[in-house]
Task: inverse folding
């Protein structure tokens, strides 16, 4: 219940075995916005043939869940579980780093809502997501 | 475009580096339902403290995306990209194997919709998901 | 906060001006499932040209929200606000009555989740929906 | 298939019996953004007791579906069916006019995605929505 200082959030993110598995790292953190990067790794790729040479949608969903979660953590000062998550894939994500920018749209007593945008190295929007979190 | 025989689907699933990263494996496959397992691994866990000892929601979202995708592949006979994905987390998923059962609700000329249910080792429902895929 | 008896639910549904505007009526109610009908009315139609001769998606979303809400009311015994709602339109809904069958998938202390299926007069599935409600 | 001029959109919106039932009217229209108003009417209210004195979530979902749809129509120049719709209710919408501002996030050859924000008369955000449309 005690408030988490913002400068502790990058370490909190790294403490998760799953975040380390995907290589997620926090780039910037502010009360109203966080940026999380998923550096390119060969094992995030969807398929091993030519048609599958893009980042797997599940990895992108994981990035969105994490970035949204940390946007809410930054806003409310404590860890929060995800209630539901939605992801819209706008284009295939080419092999390369992905950047998720997450903003809290609501931070109420019982619920929070965060919006997340994911861009590729060329700055193109590859996916957008929205999550509800229990505060 | 050529039809994929059902017995090729377990291998198709394993061909994805991302599926191998998470350890996903196909258990059963039929034209109207597939079951995918995510065996427990320590690196799927959300946090390293006591409060984080459950499977990360991003891993569950990945499992749901994959199972839904393969339900549609089983129905239409070719690989299909995800258009959008939604996940409802019903309870924290305890450390252990997770099983995703996916069924195609619609398989049209341009779009398909799949429903996915995820259960833990005790058979309790931990999450439900729904995805739209481009056929 | 007092528990609502199940046989009061049809009247509770009719008490809403918006439900009366759309003509919604409760057909059956049980602790785990409710059925709500939206009888055909010309003013539920999407367009006035030939291409628009189907029930408007907003009317279907309203039917799904209401049926899901009442499934949760039947389960928890009091009125509950909708947190979020999702609707997948599987086929154009022809002019005619629509029937929504709603089931509670989770009814927890703070949240409930309901699934809704909408069928046309021929029994074909025209839409599926899912909602999260604050209990 | 022929392109719809933007100045025809307010009339196209009024041609829908369902839009007239709810009283929807187009306020502004541009290739990248449309604004639709739902003027207050007593029959849009959720309940007839004190606790129900807010705009029904189904009416708000209808407003979001319509505004998103017309944002895509403005972008692609022809009528488009909704594939799926999601609504997050951020606060109870007080009795009064609601304004939906919709923007197209993607307008591809087969699919479009639109984001919608709904504000009350005080300018507060009451709901946000996202829809996928078939282009």
Result:
């Amino acid at each position: 219940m005690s408030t988490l200082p913002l400068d502790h959030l990058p370490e909190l993110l790294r403490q998760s075995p799953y975040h380390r598995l995907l290589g997620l790292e926090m780039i910037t953190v502010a009360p109203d916005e966080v940026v999380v990067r998923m550096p390119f790794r060969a094992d995030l790729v969807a398929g091993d043939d030519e048609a599958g040479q893009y980042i797997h949608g599940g990895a992108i969903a994981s990035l969105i869940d994490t970035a949204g979660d940390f946007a809410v953590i930054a806003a409310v000062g404590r860890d929060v579980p995800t209630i539901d998550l939605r992801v819209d894939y706008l284009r295939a994500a080419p092999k390369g780093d992905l950047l998720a920018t997450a903003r809290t749209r609501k931070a109420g007593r019982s619920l929070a809502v965060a919006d997340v945008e994911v861009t590729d190295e060329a700055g193109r929007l590859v996916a957008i997501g929205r999550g509800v979190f229990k505060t």
